[in-house]
Design goal:
By secondary structure, this protein is α+β, with helices and mostly antiparallel strands. It has five helices and eight strands; from the N terminus they run ββαααβββαβαββ. It has a single domain, classed as Aminopeptidase. This is GNAT family N-acetyltransferase.
Length: 178
C-alpha cells in the first residue's frame, strides 16, 4: 500500500506525520473545530488526537498501518495551522479516504485549504490512487461549498438520520475522481 509521504509540502504549507510531543498543541487546535459539532452531532473528545495517533480513526476492518495523521504548518513561520487525517485503501485499494481536514478558523478563507487539497490530490494521484472520498455533514454548508468547488462532484452515499429535525444529522460521502 502506497502511503502519502511522512513529509511533503505545497507552496505555503508543510505537512508531516504527527509526533507524540505535538499532541497537546494539535488537540488544542482540534478544540477550535468544536463548532462543527452543531452540524454533525458528534461530541467533543478531549483525547481525540492522542487516540488517533495511537489507534487511528479507522473504517470497519481497517488497519493502523494504512492510517496517517499529519500536522499542517505555515512554511513562512512554521506555525501550526491545520490537521490532516487520511486512510489509504478504503473502500477499495484504489481509494484514499480524507478522514479529517481542518484549517484554523482564524485563518480560513485565505486559500490554505484549497492549496492543500490541490497538492494532496497531486500527491495521491502520483501514488496511483484513482479517487479521494470524504464525509461531510449535510448541515455544514461552508464545507459542502468548499468540497464541491474542489472537485468532489459525485455523491456515493447519504448516511445518518432519515428525518429532518434540529437533533437529526446526516452526512454525504463525496468523491473526487483522479
Amino acid at each position: 500500500m502506497n502511503l502519502i509521504p511522512e513529509q511533503w509540502h505545497s507552496a505555503r504549507l508543510s505537512l508531516s506525520d504527527l509526533k507524540e510531543n505535538e499532541i497537546p498543541a494539535v488537540q488544542k487546535l482540534y478544540e477550535t473545530s468544536r463548532y462543527m459539532n452543531e452540524w454533525d452531532g458528534e461530541t467533543y473528545k478531549p483525547d481525540h488526537i492522542q487516540n488517533c495517533l495511537f489507534n487511528g480513526n479507522l473504517p470497519p476492518g481497517g488497519v493502523l498501518r494504512n492510517y496517517r495523521m499529519q500536522t499542517v504548518r505555515n512554511r513562512e513561520n512554521a506555525s501550526l495551522i491545520g490537521i490532516l487525517s487520511v486512510y489509504h485503501g478504503h473502500p477499495s485499494s484504489e481509494s484514499v479516504y480524507l478522514e479529517f481536514l481542518y484549517i484554523d478558523s482564524n485563518i480560513q478563507k485565505q486559500g490554505f485549504g484549497q492549496e492543500l487539497t490541490n497538492r494532496f490530490t497531486e500527491v495521491v494521484a502520483d501514488l496511483g490512487y484513482r479517487e479521494i472520498r470524504l464525509n461531510v455533514a449535510l448541515k455544514n454548508w461552508p464545507a459542502l461549498r468548499f468540497w464541491t468547488q474542489c472537485g468532489f462532484d459525485r455523491i456515493s452515499g447519504i448516511f445518518g438520520d432519515r428525518q429532518i429535525s434540529d437533533n437529526a444529522f446526516a452526512n454525504l460521502e463525496l468523491v473526487k475522481t483522479l
